[in-house]
C-alpha cells in the first residue's frame, strides 16, 4: 500500500502554530497563517468555535461581553 501524505486541515495547521502555554486570540492565529503563506484560512468565528470544543485549549478570560476570547493551549 502507498501512504499519501495529505496537507493538514486549516484547524490542524492553526493548532500547530500555537505553542504550549501561549495565550492567543483567533485573530492572532489567522494573522500567523496568512504570514506563513496559507491560502485557505478559516474565519475568526469558525476558528474560535473549534478552539472552544477542543480539550487542548482553555478559555483564559473573556474581555467583557464584547471583544475576542483569549485561549491558552495546555497540551
Total strands:
3
> Kindly state the mean pLDDT as a whole number?
86
Please work out how many helical segments DSSP would assign.
3
Biggest sheet record: 3 strands, antiparallel
> Gyration radius, to the nearest Å?
13 Å
Structural class of the helices, strands and pairings? Answer: alpha+beta
Number of domains: 1
Low-pLDDT stretches are none
Shape: globular
Task: Kindly state the percentage of residues in helix.
Answer: 25-40%
| Percent in strands | 15-25%
End-to-end separation in angstroms reads 33 Å
Q: Name the helix and strand elements from N-terminus to C-terminus, one letter apiece.
A: HEHHEE
What is the spatial order of strands in the main beta sheet? 1-3-2
Would you kindly provide a written description of the structure presented here, covering whatever features stand out?
By secondary structure, this protein is an alpha+beta fold. It has one domain (10-73). It has 3 helices and 3 strands, in the order αβααββ. It has helices at 10-16, 26-35, 44-53, and strands at 23-24, 57-62, 69-73. Strands 1-3-2 form a 3-stranded antiparallel beta sheet. A hairpin with a 6-residue loop joins β2 and β3 (69-73). It starts with 9 loop residues before the first helix and ends with a strand. The model has no long low-confidence stretch (mean pLDDT 86).
Amino acid at each position: 500500500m502507498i501512504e499519501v501524505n495529505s496537507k493538514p486541515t486549516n484547524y490542524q495547521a492553526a493548532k500547530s502554530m500555537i505553542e504550549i502555554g501561549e495565550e492567543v486570540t483567533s485573530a492572532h492565529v489567522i494573522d500567523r497563517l496568512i504570514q506563513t503563506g496559507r491560502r485557505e484560512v478559516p474565519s475568526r468565528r469558525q476558528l474560535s468555535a473549534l478552539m472552544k470544543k477542543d480539550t487542548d485549549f482553555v478559555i483564559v478570560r473573556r474581555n467583557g461581553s464584547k471583544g475576542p476570547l483569549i485561549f491558552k493551549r495546555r497540551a
